[in-house]
Amino acid sequence: IEMILSDVSGTLIHATIKKQQMNKLQRMQKTVISRTPPLSDDIYLDLANFQDVLDEGGLNENILIDVLGQVVSFNEMKTHDVNNKITKKLDLELRDTNDERLKCTLWGRFAEAMWNACQNAGTERVIALLRLAKINSFKGERSVSNAFDMSLLEI
Known about the structure:
It contains three helices and nine strands; from the N terminus they run E-E-H-H-E-E-E-E-H-E-E-E. It has helices spanning 19-27, 50-54, 109-120; strands at residues 2-6, 12-16, 65-74, 78-82, 85-95, 101-107, 127-138, 141-146, 152-154.
């Protein structure tokens, strides 16, 4: 189970209950997990600064972030075998209002939605808001990606 929890002041925390922990949770007869009505109408948007994402000593990779940027380039859609399931992958580059560039990888339905938006944009700019994005580091280079179905994408 993947969850984003919030307190009334808008502080968010990502929580995961792994499969091996579910058995323990299910055996507890008084355990109840249910949706509750929101305590606030706040959208809890907290945009990360691209430079803070890119700096190795910057933002913590274990915390999901929100990023907003213009798509300046994108690669061909690829398919990968992820846990014996064929999944689409799209690599792209975003830029912010300071012209900082941030690499982004989208997976699954997020990749498909972005691919369609970019293909159909013509001369229009494509602006993307990726909420609850994961920071990744690979060979000293930092980027963001969707955290599978946990993230939200607005184009």
